[in-house]
Amino acid sequence: MHAVNEQPTASAPVPAAPPRRRRGRRVLAILAGIVIFLAALVALTPGILTSINWPELVFDLSEQLKDAPEGLVPDRQLRMRLKLKRGRSSDYELRARGTLLGRPFSAMAAIDLDYSWFAVAARARAQLAFSPSALALTARVEADSSGAWQADVELPPTALTERDPLLADLLARADLAGVTNLVFGGSLSLTAHAERTQEVPVPKWTARGRLQDFNATFTTGGQDVAVAGLRLPFGASGLADHVDLAPIFLRADRIDAAGFTLTNMFATLRATERALLVTEAGAGCCGGDLRLYSVFLDLSRLNVGLTLFVDGIDAGEALQHLNGFSGEASGRLHGRIPVRLVNGRRVKLQDAYLYSVPGETGRLRLRDATPVTRNLAAAGVDAATQDNLARALANLDYTVLRLALRPEENGEKRGELALEIKVEGTATEGGVTVPVSLTVTFHDDIERLINTGLNITRRNNQP
């Protein structure tokens, strides 16, 4: 037998992993590290955020409020301190205190966060209160890491009075042009929605509000003014820097001012940043109706001319606004009254007239004809004729009654207004009826003679 001498042989070498596989392992290791880091960061974030001692944040709002009156908004900053803590019913609770335009406020928000791969979304429910005012806003906000967000803000119907501390401060700073003894009450509500989406990457918003059941009394120029049942819806919408104001439909049950009572007042207005267009307005007055149309008002200058169209007002009530009238009258008057407002304070009448409808009759019973006879005497009419006309005006059935304001054409008062009253009809005394045709022109101070509040506005303009 031959022994076999076996020589040891070396094992074959294990082939190295290809370079592509090694790179893949490195990538997986890096990704695993990133995931672990993000998970740790998420786990530690609540503790990090809630342990930060946040400094006071200050935002300058001067650019946004550049057109606001300086006296009304002396402080144009938002100042606040934040406190973040873990919430009981939410992930976080954020509390803020500070001042907005110099007025103290407090806010609280409950925040929930949702994490997913490479994205974070947040939802918040917030309340904002202006202590100690009754005004308080609620809000809901949603946002994500893509930059999209939406927010809804609401002011529920809230009672407003002049005693509210926030409103009282605003009124104290406002220029109310001689208004005193202001007392008011009403209800204000507001809703607003704003959003920014990936499709529309600029803010888009709408806001709607309503002032209702508003009543107010105040004094101006020594005269009392009362407003009852005012209702004012308002709104606006915008996209980025563009703003559109919604039409305004103003309503009021009653307004008492300058000796007049307006009922069922309404106005339709369209506003821009600098001007106001009254497309139509009207009210009941002296048993009839007043209307005006298409009045353009420049808010920066407050100069405007308009024409009041008068339909079916009671002659007796209208004549009572003549300071020299003492008596009774019946019948209906129609006409037009051009009015000019100067610098928002002074009201001037222009050529105006009121007339009875031809064919309709009315009664005129003057208890004191002195204003008429005084003008007749100035025109050279003898005393006997004055006495006869005074007796006729004490019991007159008229077929024509016309009141007209017209400019003076001669003398020192040229350009001022004269009041012309024309009456035609029949007078009865002691069973005797005689025809009467009378035209009397008053050259006195018409702004004093006609009690329309012109003297009120004039006193407000005096230093």
Tertiary shape: elongated
Annotation, overall tally of beta strands: 24
Task: Characterize the main sheet.
Answer: 24 strands, antiparallel
- Low-pLDDT parts are 451-463
The radius of gyration is 39 Å
The percentage helix is 10-25%
Strand portion: over 45%
Q: Averaging pLDDT over every residue, what do you get?
A: 80
Number of helices: 7
Computed structural class: alpha+beta
Could you state the oligomeric state of the chains shown? single chain
Measured between the Cα atoms of the first and last residue, the distance is 146 Å
Features:
463 residues; alpha+beta; 7 helices; 24 strands; 24-stranded antiparallel sheet; 53% strand; disordered C terminus; elongated; single chain
Q: What does this protein look like?
A:
- With 463 residues, the protein is α+β, with helices and mostly antiparallel strands.
- It is built from seven helices and 24 strands.
- 10% of the residues are buried.
- Mean pLDDT is 80; it is low at 451-463.
Short account of what is shown:
With 463 residues, the protein is of the alpha+beta class. The protein is 17% helix and 53% strand. It has seven helices and 24 strands.
Please write out the topology.
Blueprint: H1 19-51, E1 57-60, E2 77-86, E3 92-100, E4 103-116, E5 119-129, E6 136-144, E7 149-161, H2 165-173, E8 179-196, E9 204-220, E10 223-239, E11 242-245, E12 248-257, E13 260-271, E14 275-285, E15 288-298, E16 304-314, H3 315-319, E17 327-329, E18 332-342, E19 346-349, E20 352-356, E21 362-366, H4 370-378, H5 383-393, E22 396-407, E23 417-429, E24 432-442, H6 446-449, H7 454-461
Antiparallel strand pairs: 1-2, 2-3, 3-4, 4-5, 5-6, 6-7, 7-8, 8-9, 9-10, 10-11, 10-12, 12-13, 13-14, 14-15, 15-16, 16-18, 17-21, 18-19, 18-20, 20-22, 21-22, 22-23, 23-24
